[in-house]
Amino acid sequence: MNRIDRRVPLSGPAEVEYLDGDFKIRKPGAYVVCAATGAQIPIEELRYWNVDRQEPYAGPEAKMLRLQQLGEAPRKI
Q1: Domain ranges of the chain
Q2: Angle of CA points 45, 48, 49, to nearest 5°
Q3: Is the whole-model pTM more than 0.85?
Q4: What digits encode the pLDDT tens for the residues 9-19?
């Protein structure tokens, strides 16, 4: 960091609006919390979310876990 660039590192949870293929940060923060596992997901690693439920997920496995938690998981054939 140089003398001109004095950004304060972000900490704490962010408030995010999840959109189709994108998201908007409503309140800056370092992470969001996975709806299925409770894991902290750094904003720069956020790739999975549900627009209708406005929920973030740590990964595809967490998304499937959340569907199971809600009783909405696809049936195995």
Answers
A1: 15-67
A2: 125
A3: no
A4: 788 999 999 99
